């Protein structure tokens, strides 16, 4: 017997609508289940195969929940806001509002054909004024309460689509949609102050029934760090008075500051310096431009061997007043912290590897407790370890744990964890909780 899909499918789709099979009474539902994947964008003449792939999987799950006795609500609509919908309207020469209504008819016709359990009585379009007036209202409330603000930030810019792209939308330096070359561009944009709720989000993860794997991912995404903001004065900048400029860093380990033997700024931070008139060496300019260009074409930078270059600028370590070099390296990201770090190679894995690669000083300032227990801590002679003979350290790996401070001036002999607050105050630092 030949299956007449057009006749049979139309028959049952019509029956579903007549009997309101997929229209749950949400007010009386005993086991309501909300089953929404997303609304498609009307940014073309019709749906693409990716829409079918996503909506079919969602519908399979919805049918499974329905067989378990749930009152499944599977809404559908169209999300007409966005640059892609606008670009399509420009392409066909129509006003976006008019084009959205034209696309809407074909999109809904196609969505009905696939036989999903959509609740068609509840469909909505985000470009309907009756809908987006509430979007506008919510935004105004957030703005009034200081939760919406504008600031400049570096973005991936597609000059063809005229829009900002997420990192995932940049493939080998090109826009995944139109294959145009992507540019790094600084734009002033709207941001939501979600970090205001970071602590609540973290605490409430303990009360939700999610897998531990997902919870860990959420905690890492929020990225809570407790530490200090510390300022390092800059010196030996050509044409500038010493101390006029400084470098602020955020660190979770202020107890290791006596072991900071160099500073590292991100290429993005270096670019800002150049933009405001820093007269850097041509090799430095070339390095910065090269790294920033490469980052457009590389998504997994942690697979690439790290590089760096000395900026020619020195910083003053506020803990011991020693001058230390400021390097530029691709292992520091402009989007993390202040885009600059104090490098403590004896007690940080990335700093250690970089110091070994470029033969930079390594000074141990924390003695593991296992060794401290076997030796008497002598604050006068630092148990035989001094800063001078450590500049060419024979360490084979860094020690990143807690311990007893050495080579740390008046803090020698103190447990490193206990010394954090004292050292922060000693260098006029500011305690800070930071979120990614």
In short:
The chain has helices spanning 5-19, 49-67, 83-92, 96-113, 129-144, 198-204, 212-222, 267-275, 282-297, 349-358, 369-372, 416-426, and strands spanning 32-34, 71-73, 77-78, 124-125, 148-158, 163-165, 170-171, 174-175, 183-192, 225-235, 246-251, 262-265, 308-316, 323-329, 340-343, 366-368, 403-405, 430-434. It is of the alpha+beta class and 436 residues long. The protein folds into 4 domains: 5-139, Rossmann fold; 146-192, no CATH class; 194-222, no CATH class; 225-434, Isoleucyl-tRNA Synthetase, domain 2, CATH 3.90.740.
Which architecture of the largest domain per CATH?
Answer: Alpha-Beta Complex
* SS-based class: alpha+beta
What sort of overall outline do the alpha carbons produce when their principal axes are compared?
Answer: elongated
What share of the residues lie within helices? 25-40%
Pfam families: tRNA-synt_1 (PF00133), tRNA-synt_1_2 (PF13603)
Domain Aminoacyl-tRNA synthetase class Ia: 11-216
EC number: 6.1.1.4
Keywords: Aminoacyl-tRNA synthetase, ATP-binding, Ligase, Nucleotide-binding, Protein biosynthesis
């Amino acid at each position: 017997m030949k299956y007449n899909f057009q006749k049979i499918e139309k028959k049952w789709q019509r029956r579903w609508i007549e009997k309101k099979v997929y229209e749950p009474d949400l007010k009386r539902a005993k086991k309501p289940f909300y089953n929404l994947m997303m609304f498609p964008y009307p940014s073309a003449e019709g749906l693409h195969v990716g829409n079918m792939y996503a909506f079919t999987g969602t519908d399979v799950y919805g049918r499974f929940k329905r067989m378990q006795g749930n009152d499944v609500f599977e809404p559908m609509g169209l999300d007409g806001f966005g640059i892609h919908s606008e670009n399509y309207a420009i392409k066909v020469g129509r006003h976006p509002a008019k084009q959205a209504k034209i696309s809407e008819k074909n999109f809904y016709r196609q969505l009905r054909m696939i036989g999903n359990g959509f609740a068609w009585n509840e469909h909505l379009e985000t470009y309907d004024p009756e809908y987006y007036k509430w979007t506008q209202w919510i935004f105004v409330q957030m703005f009034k309460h200081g939760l919406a603000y504008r600031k400049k930030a570096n973005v991936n810019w597609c000059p063809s689509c005229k829009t900002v792209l997420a990192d995932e939308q940049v493939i080998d330096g090109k826009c995944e949609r139109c294959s145009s070359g992507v540019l790094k561009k600084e734009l002033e944009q709207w941001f939501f102050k979600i970090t205001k709720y970071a602590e609540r989000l973290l605490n409430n993860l303990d009360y939700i029934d999610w897998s531990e794997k997902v919870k860990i991912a959420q905690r890492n995404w929020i990225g809570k760090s407790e530490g200090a903001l510390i300022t390092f004065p800059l010196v030996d900048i050509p044409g500038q008075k010493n101390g006029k400029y400084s470098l602020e860093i955020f660190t979770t380990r202020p107890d290791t500051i006596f072991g900071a033997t160099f500073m590292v700024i991100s290429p993005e931070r270096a670019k800002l310096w150049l933009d405001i008139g820093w007269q850097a060496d041509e090799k430095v300019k070339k390095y910065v431009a090269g790294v920033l260009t490469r980052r457009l074409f590389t998504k997994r930078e942690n697979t690439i061997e790290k590089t760096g270059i000395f900026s020619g600028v020195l910083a003053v370590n506020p803990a011991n007043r020693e001058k230390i070099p400021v390097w530029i390296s691709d292992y520091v990201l402009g989007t993390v912290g202040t885009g600059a770090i104090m490098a403590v190679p004896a007690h940080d894995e990335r700093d250690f590897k970089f110091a070994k690669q470029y033969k930079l000083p390594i000074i141990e300032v924390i003695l593991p407790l296992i060794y401290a227990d076997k030796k008497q801590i002598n604050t006068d002679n630092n148990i035989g370890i001094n800063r001078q003979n450590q500049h060419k350290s024979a360490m084979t790996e860094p020690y990143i744990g807690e311990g007893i401070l050495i080579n740390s001036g008046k803090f020698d002999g103190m447990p490193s964890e206990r010394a954090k607050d004292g050292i922060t105050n000693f260098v006029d630092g500011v305690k800070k909780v930071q979120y990614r």
